[in-house]
Specification:
Blueprint lengths: L16 H12 L6 H8 L4 H15 L3 H8 L2 H11 L2 H13 L6 H8 L4 H15 L3 H8 L2 H10 L5 H5 L5 H13 L9 H14 L8 H10 L2 H14 L5 H8 L2 H29 L6 H11 L4 H12 L3 H7 L4 H11 L3
Length: about 350
């Protein structure tokens, strides 16, 4: 569903980077920390303005603002504030890296970031990831995931050069999979073809409902190579071919595990990206405990894109405001106040 993105954080009027830097230094200097002053400034400035504040802080005081924030803050409040200070694409890359580093892999984070982005966003992430972490994103994804899910992810990302792939020492099968990803290209974002939609819908049916077993490669190909507009046509055609069965129902009966999660995320974003994020926020706060990592990532990363749209969708679906949901969640203290400031009361 197409929409006009509405952020909750916009450039602050009458902005003065030196003045903000001075106030931040005062908030962290001496005994104690004025956390509310930090929230009032950094949760109400655009990322571009925060980068100017960071530069002014170093220029005026000879200090690193990020280092000072980390030394004065802690816990989830620190995660919110330091996350706001990262340039948006670097923040996403760091979130991906955290999802794959150490023991275990956070597949839900990978799905949310990789499966929801368009070509331009993916290219920015791929380029930045290698610059920040000295490792091609596709190769890192291949090393941390398996089977058809790995294939889905490698088809969704772009690798800048074959040389960067062969510079690592991973298995030849990994090289081959990434090479195929490069050769096959990335998602076509602007072509809409009704004949191709019928063909792809039939291919999906034949690969799943129409046979014993499931040809997962067909699902991967269709869902990674078609534009969102094209996929909407495919879903319509699929419903006709399958006798009224929607694509989501068929996917749940044919796929499972991380591959199902990844392709379902694509389907949800094709149909309504705002709803996709609203549902993720609700899931992060429902029941006992709060998935703080997801809650912070979505609120921080969407604050200058479409968090206002997500707020409206959340209220419509769950009959409560996002503000009230966060207030009722297990967040607390400065952490909660920072989230509420980013979301805004309007």
């Amino acid at each position: 569903m197409d929409y006009i993105p509405e952020p909750t954080i916009r450039p602050f009027p009458d902005f003065n980077a030196v003045e903000d830097a001075t106030l931040l230094r005062k908030a962290m200097k001496g005994f104690g920390t004025d956390e509310q002053a930090i929230i009032d400034i950094l949760c109400n400035r655009s990322n571009s303005q925060r980068q100017q504040i960071k530069e002014a802080f170093t220029r005026e005081f000879g200090r690193d603002l990020i280092a000072d924030l980390k030394s004065e803050l802690g816990g989830k409040f620190e995660d919110v504030i330091v996350g706001l200070m990262d340039p948006p694409v670097e923040y996403m890359c760091n979130q991906l890296h955290k999802a794959m580093e150490g023991m275990g892999t956070d597949e839900a984070t990978i799905v949310e970031i990789v499966c929801s982005r368009n070509n331009r966003e993916i290219k920015e992430i791929v380029d930045t990831y290698e610059r920040l972490h000295n490792r091609p994103l596709a190769e890192h994804l291949c090393s941390e995931t398996e089977s058809s899910f790995r294939r889905l992810l490698t088809l969704l990302v772009t690798v800048r050069s074959i040389n960067s792939i062969y510079s690592s020492s991973y298995q030849k099968v990994t090289y081959f999979m990434i090479f195929q990803c490069v050769m096959q290209g990335v998602r076509e974002e602007f072509n809409v073809d009704s004949d191709k939609a019928r063909e792809d819908a039939q291919s999906l049916y034949d690969a799943g409902e129409g046979k014993w077993g499931t040809d997962e490669e067909v699902f991967n190909k269709v869902f990674t190579h078609s534009s969102h507009a094209q996929l909407r046509l495919v879903f319509q055609e699929y419903k006709s071919i399958s006798g009224g069965k929607c694509i989501e129902e068929s996917l749940r009966s044919e796929l499972s595990g991380e591959l199902l999660d990844g392709i379902m995320a694509i389907v949800e974003c094709v149909q309504d990206k705002v709803l996709f994020y609203a549902n993720r926020l609700h899931k992060a706060m429902e029941g006992l405990g709060t998935n703080d990592v997801t809650l912070i990532r979505i609120i921080v990363s969407r604050s200058e894109i479409d968090l206002a749209n997500i707020k409206r969708a959340y209220e419509k679906i769950y009959n409560k405001t996002l503000i009230s949901a966060v207030k009722q969640s297990e967040t607390s203290g400065d952490y909660k106040r920072a989230l509420l400031s980013i979301i805004g009361d309007a």
